[in-house]
Each structure stands twice: as structure tokens, then as C-alpha cells.
Specification:
four-stranded antiparallel sheet, 36% helix, 12 strands, 9 helices, alpha+beta, Glutamine Phosphoribosylpyrophosphate, subunit 1, domain 1, single chain, 337 residues
Length: 337
């Protein structure tokens, strides 16, 4: 009898200890992750330029964090985060977009609401300052999901989104990259103005994923595409399920070689692998990066319904950052810093 009493007391102590541990580990109420492009990012980048990238990522995280901390929606959070990155000329989205083969700028964007599977996507924009905001209007104010080229511009005419001349997107850095690509000269990896470069192509994209206090997930991605891309080329970003996806399981935004990401319907494959294989977010990203994509193809940021965050790449680096309601915060470029 005494033995039984001792066992009973031990069980009660274990239960009490577990309850205390749970109380000390609060549930994640909201979470946010972002990326600013992946590729071969030289560690020889000057400290001053490196600091600019860190500052840009931190500023974008901050605006999204404010939205989520105050009870705002995941959709609002990913939109303002991507707006911040689109307005930063360091990143290949919005101002700072790369040049096409014709010396112009064509922008793509997509946004998706995981709670409803509603989505909005655009390709070939030339005059919209913040493509991600127009993508949200496509999702919410039209019966369609995807507009392209002139049709996308005509849809923009019916909205109040800010418009700019195509020249607005130009930066001297992108112009020099384009000039070198025109003459087929190899870009210098040690050049601080070429912080992301893989085999002569710019792999820059920006994106954000979020979980809000209501348990809703959302993803948003925006890009200027590839340096010297040919007429009419469309990458993975606006293809729902490839570069951008969100459902009740996870929200994912991709960056990298668009053709490879599209071939593997990568973002959707990550969510499906979790749902149908019972895999964790980390395991699902690892599966796509190692079993479906080739080394150097790119990376992903993702968040699941429980607030777990994963930011993985199979390239040399990826501009990325995350924050959650527990106060966990990180901003990184390379694998180890």
C-alpha cells in the first residue's frame, strides 16, 4: 500500500512539473518570417553594405511585428513587410528591380490567404509602385486571381494604388549589372554591388509569411525577376503554389531559380508534404531542398499553424529574418554568423 502511495505521489509530481513547464513555455500567438533573396552572397561584402541589408531586414520585420502584436491580420502583416522591402532599393522588388533584356523593368507579385485559399497575382507590371498591394486588390476586389501585362495595368487603372514612371525602379547598381550582362562579362562576386549573383542571373525576390492571433496564415512574394530576362518571361513568384502558397497548414514564400521552383510546384509541395506525410515544417522544407531542387537553386521562408518558423536554403546565403510573440528574433544572411 505504501508503495502504491509513493507511486501516486510521484505521478502527481510529474504532472505538476509538466504543468509548470507548460506555463513557462507560452504558446506562440503570432509569428512572422521574411526573405530578401537567395544566391551566392559574398562574405567579403563591406561591413557598411552588410549593415544596410541588416537594417533593411530589421525595418521590414518591425512593421510586420507591430501589425501582429496589435492583433492585426496575417494578410496585413505580409503586405506591409513586402511594401517595406519593395521600397528598399537594395532588394530586387519594386524600386531596385532588375532590368529586362529590353532595358525595362517588369514586376511580379502574389499574395494568398491561407484561411480561405483566396489569392491574387500579377505579372509584367511596369507602373505600379508596390505590386504586392495591387495583388491584394486582385484577390479582394476582382473575381479573378491572375492578371498579366497590359491587363494588369488596366486593372491598376481601376484602383487607387500609387503609380510611377518605369524609370522609378531603376538604380545604378541594377543598371551596371544589366550592362555587364549585355556584354556577357562575368559579374564579379567580390563586387559589393553584386551581393546576390548566380551564374550571371539575379536570384533576388522578397517575401513574407505570417501567422496571426486568430490562427490565420498568409504569404506574399514580390520580385523584379531575372536580370536580362527575355520578353514575356514569367517566374515562380506569381504562380500560386510555386513561389507563393498558404493554406490551413502552412504559409510559404520562395526565392531562387524560378524555373526550378515552378517545375516542382515547390511551395505547395512543402504544404502537401506536411499534411499528407505528417512531417514537420523543417522536414518538409528540407525534403524539397534536398530531394526536389538542386544545390544552389534557392530557399524558402515558412511558418506553420502552430507558429513554427523555418528559413532554409541550399544556396550560399539568403537574406532572411523572423520574429514571434515569444520574443524570438533573428536576422541572418549566411548559414552561420
Amino acid at each position: 500500500m505504501k508503495i502504491l502511495n509513493v507511486i501516486g505521489v510521484a505521478i502527481l509530481l510529474i504532472i505538476a512539473t509538466t504543468a509548470c513547464d507548460d506555463a513557462e513555455s507560452p504558446q506562440t500567438e503570432w509569428a512572422l518570417a521574411l526573405h530578401g533573396g537567395a544566391g551566392t552572397i559574398s562574405r567579403e561584402m563591406p561591413d557598411s553594405l552588410k549593415q544596410q541589408y541588416y537594417d533593411g531586414l530589421r525595418n521590414a520585420l518591425r512593421v510586420g511585428e507591430i501589425v501582429l502584436r496589435e492583433g492585426g491580420s496575417a494578410l496585413d502583416a505580409v503586405e506591409v513587410v513586402v511594401n517595406s522591402l519593395e521600397d528598399n532599393p537594395l532588394f530586387n522588388a519594386g524600386r531596385g528591380a532588375v532590368f529586362t533584356i529590353d532595358g525595362k523593368h517588369e514586376l511580379d507579385a502574389a499574395i494568398m490567404d491561407g484561411s480561405t485559399l483566396a489569392a491574387g497575382a500579377l505579372t509584367g507590371l511596369t507602373t505600379v509602385k508596390n505590386p504586392i498591394s495591387l495583388a491584394r486588390k486582385v484577390m479582394e476586389d476582382s473575381p479573378h486571381i491572375f492578371f498579366s501585362g497590359q491587363g494588369a495595368e488596366q486593372f491598376a487603372d481601376q484602383t487607387d494604388v500609387e503609380r510611377v514612371e518605369n524609370e522609378y525602379f531603376r538604380t545604378d547598381t541594377r543598371y551596371r549589372q544589366w550592362q555587364r550582362s549585355q556584354t556577357n562579362e562575368a559579374m564579379n562576386l567580390m563586387d559589393p554591388n553584386n551581393a546576390i549573383w548566380v551564374e550571371g542571373e539575379k536570384f533576388g525576390t522578397v517575401g513574407a509569411v505570417a501567422l496571426d492571433m486568430n490562427g490565420n496564415l498568409a504569404a506574399a512574394t514580390s520580385t523584379g525577376g531575372m536580370t536580362n530576362k527575355q520578353f514575356g518571361r514569367v517566374g515562380d513568384v506569381p504562380i500560386i503554389g510555386s513561389g507563393t502558397f498558404a493554406n490551413h497548414v502552412a504559409a510559404i514564400s520562395a526565392t531562387g531559380w524560378g524555373e526550378q521552383i515552378m517545375r516542382n510546384v515547390s511551395a505547395n509541395t512543402i504544404a502537401n508534404y506536411m499534411e499528407f506525410h505528417g512531417a514537420s515544417l523543417q522536414e518538409a522544407l528540407n525534403f524539397v531542398l534536398t530531394e526536389r531542387l538542386n544545390p544552389g537553386d534557392g530557399g524558402f521562408v515558412a511558418v506553420d499553424k502552430d507558429g513554427n518558423i523555418s528559413m532554409q536554403m541550399n544556396s550560399a546565403g539568403m537574406y532572411r529574418g523572423s520574429v514571434n510573440s515569444r520574443g524570438d528574433r533573428v536576422v541572418m544572411i549566411w548559414e552561420e554568423e
